[in-house]
Amino acid sequence: MSLSCVQHTAQYKSAAGILPSNHAMITESHPDRRDPALPANDRQQADLGSHLVVSPYTSLPHLLDLRPLEESQRLLAKALTVLQSVREDYATGPYHQSFSWDAVIDRLKSLLELSKYQWKRQNFYIVVFRSQVPPTTDRTHLGGLDQRSHAEATKSGGLLKYWFGLPDEKGRNLATCIWRNFADARPASVGPGHREAMRATMNMYTEWKLERLRFEIGDGAKAWSITPWEA
Questions:
Q1: Of 144, 183, 200, 218, whose CA is between 20 and 30 Å from 26?
Q2: pLDDT by residue for the chain (231 residues), tens digit each?
Q3: Distance between CA atoms of 222 and 183, rounded to whole angstroms?
């Protein structure tokens, strides 16, 4: 996961300005959004029962363990598997208009009906990392760093969804993480994998912007909103 999504209070200074200390900063490192080739016996599929694919990475260290989660969190994680971009300019467009949120909520409602779970209003924590790197940047090495950082963040247990796009013709991209709460995201940004990734990307970004948002889903999943996060 490019954990620019995991960023919180810690920051690094670079020649260009303040660089968030988080792993989503490596999102642009991938030439595509697939896991690199892995041995067949090391590759895991989504239908594992207790684990769920919630990112472009499909091997076991990257899967969300559903067992420690509350039922509402498990249901939302499953609903978020249908999340996808709905506009080509997602890297620069309004976040709430750039993804298939209505489809996510429709899927959640279906899961609620099947499970008979009574959904009460809840808030979730979203991190958005918008960035730009030179289009000629070699992202191969950064891809490996990104994977290690994502596996590290997955251990927190609260990362319900990670998504990143492909850089446009100007090298602009977007990465986003959806956490069950702010507390889960904070420790995920300080591990050794993230520090290594930060050292590798310190001077690569020409622009970056971090957004922290609140994803609120009302009673019965009848309404939803995405607004700026206020502690």
A1: 183
A2: 344 564 433 333 332 333 333 333 333 334 334 433 333 333 334 445 799 999 999 999 999 999 999 999 999 999 999 999 999 999 999 999 999 999 999 999 999 999 999 999 999 999 999 988 887 777 777 677 778 888 888 888 899 999 999 989 999 999 999 999 999 987 766 777 777 766 666 667 788 888 999 999 999 999 999 999 986
A3: 26
Q: What gap in Å lies between CA 114 and CA 121, rounded to an integer?
A: 19
Name every residue whose Cβ is closer than 8 Å to that of residue 132 and which is 6 or more positions away in sequence: 170, 171, 172, 173, 205, 206, 207, 208
H or E stretch including 128? strand 122-132
Amino acid code (one letter) for 97? Q
Instruction: Determine the Cα–Cα distance for residues 3 and 40; give it in Å rounded to an integer.
Output: 27
CB 223 within 8 A of CB 215: no
Residue 192: strand, helix, or coil: helix
**pTM for this prediction:** 0.80
Closest CA to 181 of 217, 215, 152, 219: 215
Rounded to whole angstroms, what are the CA distances from 112 to 80, 86, 136? 14, 25, 46
Round to whole Å and give the CA distance between 172 and 41.
35
Which DSSP category does 30 fall into? -
Distinct helix (H) and strand (E) counts, the chain:
5, 9
Count Cβ atoms below 10 Å from residue 120 Cβ, excluding itself.
Answer: 10
Contact between residue 176 and residue 164 where contact means Cβ atoms under 8 Å apart: yes
